[in-house]
From TrEMBL:
Stored InterPro entries: Methyltransf_12, SAM-dependent_MTases_sf, Znf_put
Organism for this UniProt entry: Streptosporangium oxazolinicum
Name of the protein described by the UniProt record: SAM-dependent methyltransferase
Domain Methyltransferase type stretches: 134-215
Domain Putative zinc-finger residues, every copy: 6-38
Pfam families recorded: Methyltransf_12, zf-HC2
């Protein structure tokens, strides 16, 4: 790896953090191959996150178990390689047990590297006049909390895990411990919400129709991330490659049609 290329990539880290580079894929590929730049990128994100409320909350929540500068993406990729390709239940267990994923979700958001999905997606909820929302794949609550702050009636949904333990802790600190945090299977027995909010989750699902058909049949709007954007810099195997056209066909079979969008928006939406 040339020193000049490494210097160039490191100079680009501030802009890469904010997602405003034209050649994001080129930077991503370099970070996947160059351990030195990868280490620099990990430290850069941690330091960008260190002044945030979420970082302070994570450190308080974990106490003496807190591991600063953990490269959670690399840890997740290694854990995945050691486990081997799982079946659907094995995938669920992977997320139920992963402390590295807790770090990954917090540092991604707290560093400013995660797009502001809530700001981009809430106007779609307003267009659909949605008030009740299932945040499917809620993780640590990166979107659950701003949706609650915006006045929506939110049910958080994810596997019981270190991530949802942290979310419940955050809700208690905010006096919102009555907010439901449910497992995916529990969504089958609940009234259908107005909106399905599903960010950073579709590409984890072994079968989208099996996991979501009961919700897709009744919701008025679906909000997900821009499915054309490539993911990750460590090639974690639990992100499936999605065909955006196939996802659109699944949604359309349930009466949900693509909403108009700004090509620069980090979200996509479907409306009934």
């Amino acid at each position: 790896m040339s020193h000049r290329l490494c210097s160039h990539v490191r100079d680009m880290l501030p802009r890469y953090l904010c997602g405003n580079l034209a050649d994001k894929d080129g930077i991503r590929e370099h970070l996947a191959e160059c351990s030195s730049c990868r280490d620099r990128w990990n430290r850069y994100r941690w330091e960008a996150a260190s002044s945030s409320t979420a970082y302070t909350e994570l450190r308080t929540f974990l106490g003496e178990d807190f591991v600063p500068y953990l490269d959670s993406s690399a840890t997740l990729a290694e854990d995945w390689r050691e486990q081997g390709p799982p079946d659907a239940e094995g995938l669920a267990q992977f997320f139920r047990q992963s402390a590295a994923y807790l770090y990954n979700l917090v540092i991604w958001q707290a560093s400013g590297n995660r797009p502001d999905y809530a700001a981009a997606g809430i106007p779609l909820l307003d267009v659909a006049r949605a008030r009740t929302v299932v945040d499917f794949g809620c993780g640590v609550g990166n979107d659950t909390l701003p949706l609650l702050d915006a006045g929506f009636d939110v049910t958080a949904c994810d596997y019981d895990s270190p991530s949802t333990d942290f979310l419940r802790w955050r809700l208690r600190r905010r006096g919102q411990d009555g907010i439901p945090v449910v497992e995916p299977a529990q969504t089958y027995g609940m009234p259908c919400p107005d909106a399905l909010w599903i960010i950073d989750t579709l590409d984890h699902l072994p079968d989208i129709e099996v996991a979501l058909s009961h919700l897709l049949a009744g919701v008025r709007v679906v909000v997900c991330e821009d499915l054309a954007v490539r993911r990750g810099v460590t090639r974690k195997g639990f992100h499936r490659s999605l065909d955006p056209d196939e996802v659109a066909r699944i949604f359309e079979r349930h009466g949900l049609l693509p909403a108009s969008r700004d090509p620069a928006s980090p979200v996509m939406g479907w409306l009934r």
